[in-house]
Inverse folding.
């Protein structure tokens, strides 16, 4: 059997602390902004509460309890033959308030043990420095990334990690899905203050929101570039990447208005952030967008120099689904928490309203590789679905296998097209809480976690059918995708 995947292809899986780690107030950890988010459902958005409610369910507080299961979990990942494991560090476990003078040693020790455990099995950690969270104190006192001071707090945090884990971690990502703050507003990825009871995602942005989000995002760009610089100084072997929510927007029709709308949407959603982080400068179309939305950014000459010096070593992105866009307002919007645009009649949709489109992944890989020409990794991909535990305890998730097969096939095509794809880490490799809805029932994993949305279950782990299938995929380096 022959394979298209390169010899050292990084097969693995991905998780994030705020959805998986739990132990939100143990080991000296401070509350993060994600710890203030109640659970929601497909129809009912999650909301932020300024004070924790005694009877409220905050899913990040226990997550999937990785904190107390990490040895067992990493062994399970090793059992699939993982070469890499993408995870994030909870900023508030290292700096509980964000502006502390010194880090929390117990937090540093925890991650050291996690990385050592990975290396025991030959698994290379791939670490996201900030995945949808910051210490809540930084939100409450400073308005998160709305404040330029956040740059200093972040760089100090990143420097601590690069120094502490110099010999244990060599692959880093500065921010998860950095473009989400721009698309959905300030709380979830920019840590900005919102009113009690607001949803963390808001697709309807006013010009004032856009101004605030883009300024906050600019602070993140500068922080990311400074982290890249300092990370390279501490260890020249460090490979530091960006992470973008991969947005594939097709024109609904061949009407030139739809074609232009798709082009403009792809540019703003993908290249606005990608260009700054990969090329070191804002793209040509930014100024017109700013002018049309009355945006005036505070960008200093020093910022511009930093952005140029701190470009990333590789490009990573998440890909779940594609969108169709049109200027015809009568078509209405598609469902789903993160989806935008209108229903694409050629695609099937998941229970949560996300279009399933493996070919969109090939399109995106070619599109971004053509623009940037640096190594690429798909660091999130997968199907959020309800799983059924059969009476014999088995979980037969053929729908998940089918989804992943289709996407891996398209990665193969992209490699044949000439794309330098170096790794693949499907999302939520062990079940975890959904970021969008806060639900546990929207599962992505190869491993089932016994916990439900009524907070019932002992967190025990059971490999699903897809676990054995993915093990075979990795063992054959992607040649054998059969179920
Ligand atoms: C990405 C995020 O947007 O999608 C993850 O980086 C998230 O944190 C994933 O979990 C899937 O989204 P959801 O809403 O199904 O959890």
């Amino acid at each position: 059997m022959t394979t298209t995947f390169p010899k050292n292809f990084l097969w693995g899986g991905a998780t994030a602390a705020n959805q998986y780690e739990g132990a939100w107030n143990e080991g000296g950890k401070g509350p993060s902004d994600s710890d203030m988010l109640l659970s929601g459902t497909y129809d009912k958005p999650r909301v932020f509460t300024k004070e924790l409610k005694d009877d409220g369910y905050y899913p990040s507080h226990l997550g999937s309890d990785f904190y107390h299961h990490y040895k067992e979990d990493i062994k399970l990942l090793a059992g699939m033959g993982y070469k890499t494991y993408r995870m994030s560090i909870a900023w508030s476990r290292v700096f509980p308030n964000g502006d502390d003078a010194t880090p929390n040693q117990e937090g540093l020790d925890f991650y050291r043990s996690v990385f050592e455990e990975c290396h025991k099995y030959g698994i290379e950690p791939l670490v996201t420095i900030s995945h949808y969270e910051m210490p809540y104190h930084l939100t409450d006192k400073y308005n998160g990334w709305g404040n330029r001071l956040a740059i200093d707090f972040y760089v100090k945090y990143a420097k601590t990690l690069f120094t502490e884990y110099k010999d244990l971690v060599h692959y880093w990502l500065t921010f998860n899905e950095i473009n989400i703050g721009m698309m959905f507003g300030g709380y979830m990825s920019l840590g900005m203050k919102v009113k009690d009871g607001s949803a963390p995602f808001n697709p309807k942005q006013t010009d004032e929101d856009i101004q605030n989000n883009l300024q906050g995002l600019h602070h993140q760009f500068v922080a990311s570039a400074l982290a890249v610089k300092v990370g390279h100084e501490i260890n020249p072997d460090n490979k530091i990447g960006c992470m973008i929510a991969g947005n594939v927007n097709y024109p609904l029709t061949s009407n030139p208005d739809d074609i232009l709308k798709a082009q403009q949407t792809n540019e703003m959603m993908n290249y606005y952030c990608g260009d700054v982080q990969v090329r070191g400068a804002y793209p040509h179309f930014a100024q017109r967008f700013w002018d049309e939305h009355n945006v005036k950014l505070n960008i200093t000459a020093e910022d511009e120099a930093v952005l140029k010096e701190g470009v990333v070593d590789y490009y990573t992105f998440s890909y779940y689904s594609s969108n169709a866009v049109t200027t015809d307002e009568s078509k209405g919007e598609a469902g789903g928490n993160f989806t935008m645009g209108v229903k694409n009649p050629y695609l099937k949709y998941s229970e949560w309203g996300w279009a399933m489109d493996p070919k969109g992944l090939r399109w995106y890989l070619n599109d971004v590789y053509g623009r940037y020409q640096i190594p690429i990794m798909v660091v999130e991909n997968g199907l959020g679905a309800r799983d059924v535990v059969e009476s014999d305890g088995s979980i037969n998730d053929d729908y998940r296998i089918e989804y992943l097969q289709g996407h891996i096939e398209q990665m193969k095509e992209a490699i044949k097209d000439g794309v330098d794809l170096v790794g693949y880490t499907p999302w939520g490799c062990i079940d975890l809480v959904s970021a969008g809805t806060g639900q546990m029932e929207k599962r992505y994993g190869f491993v089932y976690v016994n916990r439900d949305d009524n907070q019932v279950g002992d967190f025990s782990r059971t490999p699903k059918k897809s676990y054995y299938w993915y093990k075979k995929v990795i063992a054959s380096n992607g040649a054998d995708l059969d179920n």
The pocket of 6-O-phosphono-beta-D-glucopyranose is lined by residues 16, 19, 132, 176-177, 245, 318, 337, 380, 384, 427, 434-437, 442 (CB under 6 Å). Residues 10-475 form a domain with the TIM Barrel fold (CATH 3.20.20.80).
